[in-house]
Design goal:
The chain contains no helices and eleven strands. Strands 2, 4, 5, 6, 9, 10 and 11 form a seven-stranded mixed beta sheet that branches. The N and C termini lie far apart (34 Å). The protein is mainly β.
């Protein structure tokens, strides 16, 4: 299993970014992709996840309204649209794959988001 994140970068406060997570190297279709971030010097924070087979989504309460998770099942790709970015959103953003909602069995390498 391989997960490749992209779309990070430097953005001004109030700006937007769309992160992508491309998954490959497997044949199963029933799995979850979770976006997780780690701010500098802090622990991991789960943001949102999506069930690839049905599209059901789950958000951390603090993410509702600004971040939107979506998927393109045909491309095995998950997106995280982030609007109204704040300095506290600065972090390394990872996507993780699991076969149950709170499992993070496989991880990507991360993409850096800097809001400044």
């Amino acid at each position: 299993v391989q997960l490749v994140e992209s779309g990070g970068g430097l953005v001004q406060p109030g700006g937007s970014l769309r992160l992508s997570c491309a998954a490959s190297g497997f044949t199963f279709t029933k799995y979850y992709i979770t976006w997780i971030r780690q701010p500098p010097g802090k622990g991991l924070e789960r943001l949102a996840n999506i069930y690839m087979d049905g599209g059901n989504t789950y958000y951390a309460d603090s993410m509702k309204g600004r971040f939107t998770i979506s998927r393109d099942s045909a491309k095995n790709t998950v997106y995280l649209q982030m609007n109204g970015l704040k300095s506290e959103d600065t972090a390394l953003y990872y996507c993780a794959l699991g076969t149950v909602r709170i499992e993070y069995k496989f991880w990507g390498q991360g993409t850096q988001v800097t809001v400044s």
